[in-house]
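Protocol check, entry for the methods section draft. Step 1: assemble the input record (protein sequence plus ligand SMILES). Step 2: submit for complex structure prediction. Step 3: store the structure tokens unaltered in the notebook. Ligand used here: 2-acetamido-2-deoxy-beta-D-glucopyranose. Step 1 record:
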Amino acid sequence: MPEMGNSLRAAALLAFVVLSILVSLLISSVQQFGVSHFSNATLAVDEQEFASLRGALIYQLNERRKEIIPLLLPDGDDDDDDDENGLSEGTRLSPQLYSPLDYNLWNEITNGSRKAHMDEMGCESLVDMQAMEVLGSGYTKLVVKVNLAGGQPVALKLVNEQGIDMSKCLEDFKDPQGCRELVSYKLKKEIVLLQRLQHPNVIKLKGHCAGDARGQGGRGAERGRVTVILEQGNPLQMIQLLQSPWEDRFRVCLDLVRLLHFLSQSPLGSVALLDFQPRQFVTVSGELKLTDLDDASAEETPCQTDADCTLQFPHRNFTLPCSYRGVCEGLNEKRNIYNAYRYFFTYLLPHQAPPGLTHLVDHIMNSTGELKADINQTLEAFEHILLLYKSGLHLDNLPPSIIRDYTVMRGMGTSGNVEYSCWPSYSQQGCVLSVHSAREAAYICNSHSQCNSFTLTGQKTWTGRLLASFRSSFSHLVPDGTSEVYVKKTKAPETSTV
Ligand SMILES: Nc1ncnc2c1ncn2[C@@H]1O[C@H](COP(=O)(O)OP(=O)(O)OP(=O)(O)O)[C@@H](O)[C@H]1O
Ligand SMILES: *[C@@H]1O[C@H](CO)[C@@H](O)[C@H](O)[C@H]1NC(C)=O
Ligand SMILES: *[C@@H]1O[C@H](CO)[C@@H](O)[C@H](O)[C@H]1NC(C)=O
Ligand SMILES: *[C@@H]1O[C@H](CO)[C@@H](O)[C@H](O)[C@H]1NC(C)=O
Ligand SMILES: *[C@@H]1O[C@H](CO)[C@@H](O)[C@H](O)[C@H]1NC(C)=O
Ligand SMILES: *[C@@H]1O[C@H](CO)[C@@H](O)[C@H](O)[C@H]1NC(C)=O
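Step 3, stored output:
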């Protein structure tokens, strides 16, 4: 009951927050217009200024539009045609010049409510939705956790009215409506990229709505407003991740490498993530997904000599080869690898790696930190570790005899446990770790002075390893079809069996 009260209160709070944002927006736009009627003298000046600001804003809008057009090109001809030249001709840049399919996509994003595919959500999906809380916000976007009318949880991305992008634009152009439209281009670009770059480690686009949430497409005050409907995730919390088992941290790194492998040969070419930070990612059931794509770029860097191909990082510079085509070879791929190394691997990978795997982890750390390996080799090294870890091959040197120190009782669980804690445990109470087999669990129990028995619970981690719970003692055995209890023989524990 109190939980329900809380979520109601949270919903009310959010409604209030959203409302106050809207109200403050309204007030500021009224003020914006009010100012220009202030006096006769300023009016003329303002009109002139307004015209030139308007011109500059329109220029910016066109620039943003141009950024998106190349992304609408059909797959596979990003190699030899020179987009740059094609676009700078000052033509109308109508996507109509390109394939009809892509023109549809453009209309779709611009006027909105029509569905692109049978399974895609549009504005009508947002009717009677329930906003739960703010999931996150950044320079450009606000992300809200929402339950749709049918109960389906989604995340909605909107323009962040309080964000840096919006306030900078307002400062420059003093046109809330135009600025919203300008900032919305980042959402539009993201929609196109999400459609083009579909992968298990990219957040799933469920649909979008142009215009207001209930609206019939972009009109009047709602022109240019875009809402993106996404699969709901949990923002990546580095601090929390640092405290979780190696297996989960390895998963995040592996998912990242799989993503970068895909991006290096994506339908758009080799894509670099220019703003590469943990906050651009979320997890969905433990799986890493990229959610912020507006800073993804498939552009290649032109060069004359190798010296034109430097990658600069705060503590490290690299020089890459300039290819015969006159572009820096593998620059986007290498930029991603080094960023993965400096933002993810250094924090998540080496710490508490399983003893049998440390040499392989160290090798990955060195080859990515020195940019000696390409993404294919890096992925191979990660998949190799996964294979060893899953199959328990890294445990080959554990003596098979250690399991003989224990008496096993199948189909049993325990009650009246005396727990101890260990780190990093899968459970807050007690010591729960993942193991490959009873043998590995016995090995761990032997190494914990408080441990006298353990249970293989039948639950599994994402790699298929078993969850084992270790304890000092227990008072009763209870029937439990899925689990097995192992009790140390040598130090007879004070237990009474049923
Ligand atoms: N699908 C999602 N599920 C849950 N949280 C999300 C989702 N998408 C984004 N977020 C959260 O919202 C935050 C802001 O989203 P996003 O990064 O797209 O906005 P931004 O304005 O581009 O941010 P930045 O200034 O970091 O570039 C993210 O950092 C993330 O924590
Ligand atoms: C106000 O502007 C009008 C026309 O724009 C002009 O005729 C009038 O003299 C101006 N008044 C003052 C006080 O500047
Ligand atoms: C969207 O707008 C374009 C012109 O901007 C128009 O040609 C097209 O028919 C519109 N599509 C829909 C579905 O309204
Ligand atoms: C990287 O290159 C820049 C520009 O040439 C230079 O200023 C900087 O000191 C270099 N950094 C390192 C760590 O070598
Ligand atoms: C990689 O290994 C070499 C040789 O052992 C060492 O000098 C270098 O610092 C290592 N680099 C990284 C990034 O770990
Ligand atoms: C990397 O692997 C892909 C297939 O996954 C292959 O097409 C590509 O040629 C490989 N690249 C290199 C440089 O080996």
